[in-house]
Amino acid sequence: MNAFRLAGDMTHLISVLVLLLKIHTIKSCAGISLKTQELYALVFATRYLDIFTDFISLYNTVMKLIFLGSSFSIVWYMRRHKLVQRSYDKDHDTFRHQLLVLPCLILALLIHEQFTFKEVMWTFSIYLEAVAILPQLVLLQRTRNIDNLTGQYVFFLGAYRSLYILNWIYRYFTEPHYVHWITWISGLVQTLLYADFFYYYISSWKNNVKLTLPA
Amino acid sequence: ESEPSYKDEL
Predict the structure, then answer these.
(1) For a Cys staple, A12 with which of A90, A159, A160, A171, CB 3.0–4.6 Å?
(2) Please, what is the angle between helix A117-131 and helix A34-47, to 10°?
(3) Distance CA A32, CA A149 (A)
(4) Sign (positive or negative) of CA dihedral A63, A6, A170, A190
(5) Contact in structure between A45 and A132 (CB atoms under 8 Å)
(6) Distance CA A13, CA A21 (A)
(7) How far apart are CA A126 and CA A69, in angstroms?
(8) Which residues of A touch B1 (CB under 8 A)?
(9) Residues A111, A180: Cα–Cα separation, whole Å
(10) CB A194 within 8 A of CB A160
(11) Are A83 and A52 contacting, i.e. CB atoms less than 8 angstroms apart?
(12) What is the CA radius of gyration of chain B?
């Protein structure tokens, strides 16, 4: 465990807690894409298949349980909770996320490190996570006033993977044979998708103006 | 063999 990866995991945890805080306390999911939340639940479900078979560390297991629990409870809140549902902008959250799932599954069946069920599912989760934010970014472009918690949620979610890239660079130089193109390229694509959001988010923060993304 | 090392990441 290096500082970049720990910082990345903590940033990811913060993004999830910010979102849970928003939904659980003010019972609002304004500006949040249910499609992205469902994709993330699928990402964790297919990535952590080994949670009960391979024990790596207490930290690893606890974090997996937190990510699984939070992503599924957020989907539950947005689908079932009457009060939260009222603030869900379903007219604008219309990204066809099936168009993301199928290509990622096909790609995982074509490009993977081992052709086993667990490995293909894990690879699928890596590809899917790279594009899972798209419905959320599209919704933000359609959302007039993005509230702070939503902006912070997306910012931390994007920041965590960029910290992971530093972790991969660090591990490449410090651990022999640590080469994983699939994770690296997917992580890079994922981070690049946030590039324009980061630009608008940081400039809105610097000029102290409301965050708005150009349509 | 045991799980490859990189699976220790989240």
Answers:
(1) A160
(2) 150
(3) 10
(4) positive
(5) no
(6) 12
(7) 19
(8) none
(9) 12
(10) no
(11) no
(12) 7
CB contact under 8 A, B7 and A54: yes
Please give chain A's pLDDT, 215 residues, in tens. Answer: 999 999 999 999 999 999 999 999 999 999 999 999 999 999 999 999 999 888 999 999 999 999 999 999 999 999 999 999 999 999 999 999 999 999 999 999 999 999 999 999 999 999 999 999 999 999 999 998 899 999 999 999 999 999 999 999 999 999 998 999 999 999 999 999 999 999 999 999 999 999 999 87
> What is the distance in angstroms between the CA of the first residue and the CA of the last residue of chain A?
40
Which two three-digit tokens encode residue A168?
Answer: 């991969």
B8 part of contact set with chain A, CB < 8 Å: yes
Joined together, the tokens standing for residue A207 give 């000029």
Residue whose tokens read 């939260």: A84
Q: How many CB atoms lie within 10 A of CB A106?
A: 12
The ipTM assigned to this model is 0.82
Q: Which amino acid does the sequence have at B10?
A: L
| A chain contacts of residue B8, beta-carbon cutoff 8 Å | 56-57, 60
